[in-house]
Structures are given as C-alpha cells and as structure tokens.
C-alpha cells in the first residue's frame, strides 16, 4: 500500500521536474520540445504523428508495435507497398503484424482537438520532423489536415503559453515546405493557420516557389488563399477555418472571402467551389466575382446567407426577391449542374428561422411549437425549390440547407422539385420532432 503510493508519486514528481526543465530549455533556446510535451514517462516508441492519425489498426496494435525493437523503422521503411495488391504486408520481426496499406493515407498536424494539450508551433515542428523522417508517410499521404492553435491568448493555459513562441520558428517554415513538396501523392490539404500568422508561410512558400501539383482538393482558412496559386491542378476548393471564417477582420479590412474567390482565377481545372459568404453574406458583387473568376465550375456551394443574416423577428416579411436575383446571376455559369444553398431561413424568403433561444421549445407545448417552426421552414424550402427549378431548369441536382431536392421532369417538359416531406408533412414532422424529444 505504502509502496504503491510511493510508486504513484514518482511520475508526478518527475513530471514537475521534467516540465520545469523543459520550460527553461525552451525559453532559452526556443528549440522544439523533444519527448516531454505530453507524457514524460512512457512515451510510445510509435511516432506521435502516427498515433495522432488514429488509424484503427495502429490503435488496435499499439502495444505489439511498442514491443518491437524499432517500431518507427518497422512502420516507416520497408518494401514498396504498391508492389503488391493484397492490401497488407508481412515483415520479419513484426510479431505477425501486417501493416495495412492505408495507415498513412490521413495525417494531421493538429494541437487543437479534444484530448490534445500541446503548444501550437512546437507541436507542428515535432510532428513534421517525424513525418519528414518517415519515407512511407511522405510517399503515401493522401490527406493532410493542419490546424494550429497558438496558445498566446488570455484564455490559454499558462503552462502552454510559456512553451509557445509568439511566431512560427524559421525551421518550421522550411520543414513545412520540405514536407509538402515531398508528398507526391497528397491530394487533399486542409490548412487552418490563424489569419494573423499565415502570411509568414505565404512568404516562405513563395520564396521557394512551392508548387503542389498533386493537390486536387484544398480547404484554406482565412487569408490563406495564397495556397490556391500553388496548386495548379486543383479541382475542388472550399473555405476552411471552421467558425474562424466568420470571426474578426484583417487589420486592413481586406475580405478573405473575396480574395479566395479571386485566387481561383489561376486554377483552370477547378470543378467545384463552395464557400461561406461570411460577414455580409453572398452579395451580388461577390457572386459576380465567382462568375468572373471560375466560369467553368460545375458545382457551386453558396453557404452562409444570401445577403446579411436577418435576425428573428417572428414576422414573415415575405419573399425579398434575393434568391431569384442570385439565380439570375448564376445563369452565367455555362456548365453548372449542382447547386448547394443555405437553409431556407437564409434565402431571404421571409421565413427567418424561429426564435434562436431554446427555452421556447421545451415541454409538450414547446414541441408543438417546434413542429410549427419546422413546418414553416420546410414550406419555405419548397418555395425556394420552386424558384430554383423555374430559374435554373438544367440543374441535375440541388440542395437547400443540406436537404437534397428530388427533381422530376415530366414528358411535357415541366420540372418539379419534391422533398422528403412532400405529400406526408404530418408524418414527417413527427419523425423530425418526436413526442419524447
Ligand atoms: C507480393 O506477393 C507475391 C505473391 O502474393 C509474393 O510472392 C511476393 O513476395 C510479394 N512481394 C512483396 C514485395 O511483398
Ligand atoms: C523562383 O522563381 C523565380 C521566377 O521564376 C526565380 O527568379 C527564382 O530564382 C526562383 N526561386 C527559387 C528558390 O527557385
Ligand atoms: C463547358 O463545357 C464545355 C464542354 O466540356 C467546354 O467546351 C466549355 O469550355 C465549358 N465552358 C466554360 C465556361 O468553361
Ligand atoms: C422522386 O420522386 C419520384 C416521383 O415523385 C418518386 O417516384 C421517387 O421515389 C422519388 N425519389 C426519391 C429518392 O425520393
């Protein structure tokens, strides 16, 4: 019992020593953290970037892998997996471990998800260093998600704040360029670096003439539109950055939505574009920029709101004509076959979404009220759908608020859009807002 308690104390004591020595070390040399960021005692011999990717096979076999003399070498080197099409590979000394061919398909550099508590720049430097040493990861990576949260705000943990250099270290800029350039099969890149810092990467990447010809799908966050010009074979472009896309302004008030649209002029192969309108929503001038910049696209997603988001008033103000005006502009796309629109409450059709405050939906009366609001939303979606088919009859498909319309064409040439609730509204409402909700 006493011995047990003592053993339990050892890691705690050592953790404190370890952490403070790391702090001193980092503060004085601004070096990346070595092994002590997360768990100073039982650091896995499997490189952290592989654990971070959470491939189910790695999670299931982590203990076995850790018993190998050199887990990193086992996972990162080895025969070219493309030489066999069995999907698995057996190697000597691997305790019968068969490495699936897709373990490096998805990689992330992310200190900003649940369960991870690491400083942003040092974590990125560490993970990229590991990836750069792992030839198989460089060769096989198909998707990379970058999300760097810099712990320097007033809500950041003091411990992480001390470990966080205010600006990305020089080696990080070089290493990012090296790694991206080496990933010959990388198709999808999600890039979420805060808008105040991302220009530092822009300068570094531009000065080395970085081009990423394998990238087909890009999701850059605010003010990271410079990546578009580095991906000459881009087919899909979407805004990244999550809710940061709506958050704050650039010091000089430049509109990163507009800049993303204009950047697409350099990507003749672009087929799909989608973006959230941001602060002012989709204005006619923003839409005309899309038409100018990428007239060839086949799929367009207009998310956010058509025009400024209107606050709930409880009064249906009727159709503002905004949707029709937008659709009229979209006839300028010669080859558009798919359109995604925001929910009916953001289309300027009069329905403005019901009260945002959840209390009114509580209890039996609340559920009846929620069904009423849901019904009004569905009816506004129908109204919007009718305007869409009347104005863009050649569309192969479209969605409103993520719900796909069922387009039917009759022999006499009339077109109808029907919805999951068409002809069964009451039944559908009971499914959407069940009694026990
Ligand atoms: C590929 O598979 C064949 C037969 O399935 C086997 O003989 C060969 O050794 C494998 N090559 C590698 C590199 O694993
Ligand atoms: C990048 O491209 C420019 C113009 O083509 C050239 O002058 C410059 O030397 C290149 N820089 C590098 C690092 O290759
Ligand atoms: C639309 O598609 C046709 C056929 O692929 C192509 O010739 C035409 O250039 C496209 N239009 C635009 C604006 O790219
Ligand atoms: C689409 O509508 C047609 C005609 O009303 C119907 O037969 C078909 O089942 C619908 N499809 C879906 C996926 O709802």
From TrEMBL:
Residues 1-15 form the signal peptide. It comes from the Eukaryota. Keywords: Signal. InterPro entries: LRR_dom_sf. This is Uncharacterized protein. It comes from Hyaloscypha bicolor E. The lineage of its organism: Eukaryota, Fungi, Dikarya, Ascomycota, Pezizomycotina.
């Amino acid at each position: 019992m006493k011995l047990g308690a003592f053993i339990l104390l050892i890691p705690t004591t050592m953790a404190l020593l370890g952490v403070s020595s790391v702090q001193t070390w980092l503060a004085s040399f601004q070096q990346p953290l070595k092994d002590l960021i997360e768990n100073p005692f039982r650091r896995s011999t499997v490189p952290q970037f592989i654990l971070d990717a959470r491939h189910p096979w790695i999670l299931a076999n982590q203990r076995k892998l850790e018993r190998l003399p050199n887990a990193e070498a086992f996972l990162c080197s080895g025969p070219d997996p493309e030489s066999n099409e069995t999907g698995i590979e057996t190697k000597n000394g691997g305790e019968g471990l068969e490495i699936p061919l897709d373990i490096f398909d998805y990689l992330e550099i992310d200190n900003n998800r649940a369960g991870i508590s690491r400083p942003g720049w040092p974590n990125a430097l560490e993970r990229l260093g590991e990836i750069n040493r792992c030839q198989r990861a460089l060769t096989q990576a198909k998707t990379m998600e970058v999300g760097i949260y810099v712990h320097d705000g007033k809500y950041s943990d003091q411990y992480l704040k001390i470990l966080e250099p205010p600006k990305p270290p020089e080696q990080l800029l070089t290493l990012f360029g090296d790694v991206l350039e080496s990933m010959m099969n990388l198709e999808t890149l999600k890039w979420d670096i805060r808008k105040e810092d991302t220009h530092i990467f822009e300068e570094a990447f531009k000065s080395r003439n970085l081009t990423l010809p394998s990238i087909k799908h890009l999701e850059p966050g605010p003010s990271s539109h410079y990546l578009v010009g580095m991906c000459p074979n881009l087919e899909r472009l979407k805004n990244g950055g999550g809710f940061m896309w709506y958050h704050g302004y650039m010091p000089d008030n430049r509109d990163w939505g507009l800049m993303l649209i204009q950047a697409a002029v350099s990507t003749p192969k672009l087929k799909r574009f989608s973006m959230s309108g941001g602060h002012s929503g989709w204005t006619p001038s923003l839409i005309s920029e899309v038409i100018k910049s990428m007239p060839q696209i086949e799929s367009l997603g207009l998310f956010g709101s058509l025009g400024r988001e209107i606050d709930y008033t409880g009064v249906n103000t009727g159709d503002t004509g905004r949707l029709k005006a937008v659709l009229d502009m979209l006839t300028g796309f010669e080859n558009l076959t798919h359109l995604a629109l925001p929910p009916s409450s953001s289309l300027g059709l009069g329905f403005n979404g019901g009260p945002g405050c959840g209390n009114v939906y509580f209890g039996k009366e609340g559920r009846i009220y929620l069904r009423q609001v849901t019904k009004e939303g569905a009816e506004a979606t129908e109204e919007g759908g009718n305007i869409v088919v009347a104005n863009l009859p050649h569309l192969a498909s479209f969605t409103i608020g993520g719900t796909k319309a069922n387009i039917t064409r009759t022999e006499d040439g009339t077109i109808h859009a029907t919805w999951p609730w068409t002809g069964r509204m009451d039944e559908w409402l009971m499914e959407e807002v069940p009694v026990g909700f």
